[in-house]
Amino acid sequence: MAHRFEIVSLALPADCLQESVPSAVGRLISLAWPGMSRAQLVDRARRLGMRASLRVQHGIGPDGLTQFRLTLSG
Q1: 34-74 confidence digits (pLDDT tens)
Q2: What are phi and psi of 54, to 5 degrees?
Q3: How far apart are CA 3 and CA 1, in angstroms?
Q4: Which end of the chain has fewer CB atoms at under 10 Å, N or C?
């Protein structure tokens, strides 16, 4: 059975101030919505001139969901 990727939420690392986030990244976050697919996220990033990479984080989150690390490069 294939697994489906669906955004539940996006959050910055605890040591990252919101003011330090580049405007394109802030725009991508503002364009994201719960239920967004991986393809939609990658497409939005590309349209903003970024490349998105998603990596599985080890372990399962407290809610039983798999957590991913989103890396953006421009």
Answers
A1: 888 889 999 999 999 999 998 888 877 777 888 888 899 98
A2: -115, 130
A3: 7
A4: N
Domain ranges of the chain: 22-73
Alpha-carbon span 63 to 50, nearest angstrom: 30
SS3 per-residue string spanning the chain:
CCCCCCCCCCCCCCCCCHHHCCHHHHHHHHHCCCCCCHHHHHHHHHHCCCEEEEEEEEEECCCCCEEEEEEEEC
Q: What residue has token string 């990244």?
A: 25
Over residues 10-34, the pLDDT tens digits come to 778 888 888 888 899 889 988 888 8
Ramachandran quadrant class, 73 (left: phi over 0; alpha: psi -120 to 50; beta: rest): beta
